[in-house]
Design goal:
9 helices; 4 strands; alpha+beta; four-stranded mixed β-sheet
Length: 289
């Protein structure tokens, strides 16, 4: 009886061992794990190959390296155009770099750590050179477009911020024009051309706008070098300094009111090119009467 019990215990232990072995069968361990691993790996690869990263508007995202290349290309093109009209540009940038480095290094000598401030001096020197380059480039662009029909429109369309610019809302066949700008100050009417004709255009457009904007402030600006006019190079700063009378929501409501005016637009230019060539008139911005 004892031997039979021992034999039964041994057989049951062997059965349990064999049962454990069957639960860890290849179909559930090696085969199952490998199948799952293969499926995950295959899914990852197929997902990467079949999909592309997209940005806003469903457009493919542009990598940082591509953005840097594009910005470098734009800077190079701007430098070449500016240097063509301003041969002193490299010398001005070099002087700005040297002066900035010298000032920082002088401070370093006074505190007894000239080499410690050397990286800061170089960075500030590069920053000074870039600031001078930007100002010279902007000045060159303004000089090239000044006096051309559409120059004020070109400046207004390049302003930073939430400005709703409508070019050529009124004009004459002599290429005098009035441009309308909606923003936080209210309604801004900017005229360019012969002062005696522009005054009449602005007055007529102001009466037309006043019928729908109510108590919203309306500013009028005449671009030029005569007394009472704003020079083209100061137009951007002049508009930006106007008082803020509206909120963003009020500007949106104002834009809807003004859009309801509709009306045809005269054949005025859309703006000049910095190279001195006349910019082609966009049919979406200018409609003939």
């Amino acid at each position: 009886m004892g031997a039979a019990k021992d034999t039964g215990a041994a057989s049951s232990a062997a059965g349990k061992a064999s049962g454990k072995g069957s639960t860890a069968a290849p179909g559930k361990t090696a085969g199952g794990a490998s199948a799952r691993g293969f499926g995950k790996a295959f899914g990852r690869k197929s997902g990467k190959a079949g999909t592309k990263a997209t940005g806003k508007g469903g457009q493919p995202k542009v990598g940082r390296l591509t953005k840097l290349k594009n910005q470098a290309g734009m800077m190079t093109q701007a430098y070449k155009m500016t240097y063509k009209n301003d041969p002193k540009l490299p010398w001005v940038m070099l002087i700005g770099f040297v002066v900035a480095v010298a000032v920082v290094e002088l401070i370093g000598v006074l505190i007894g750590s000239p080499f410690l401030l050397l990286p800061v001096a170089i960075l500030l020197g590069l920053l000074a050179a870039l600031i001078l380059f930007g100002r010279r480039a902007q000045g060159t662009a303004y000089r090239q477009v000044e006096g051309q029909p559409g120059a004020a429109a070109w400046v207004l369309e390049g302003m930073r911020g939430d400005w709703r610019v409508a070019t050529g809302v009124a004009g004459t066949r002599e290429l005098d024009a009035v441009h309308r700008v909606l923003g936080l100050p209210g309604v801004i009417l900017v005229g360019e051309g012969a002062p005696q004709r522009v005054r009449g255009l602005i007055a007529a457009e102001k009466r037309r706008i006043a019928r729908v904007v109510g108590d919203t402030p309306i500013y009028d600006i005449s671009v030029g070098d005569a007394e009472g006019q704003v020079p083209l190079k100061k137009l951007n700063a002049h508009v930006a300094k106007l008082p803020r009378n509206l909120t963003g929501a009020e500007v949106n409501a104002l834009a809807k009111k003004v859009a309801a005016l509709g009306g045809a637009r005269p054949p005025v230019p859309g703006g000049p090119l910095p190279g001195g060539r006349q910019m082609s008139v966009s049919q979406r911005q200018v409609r003939r009467r």
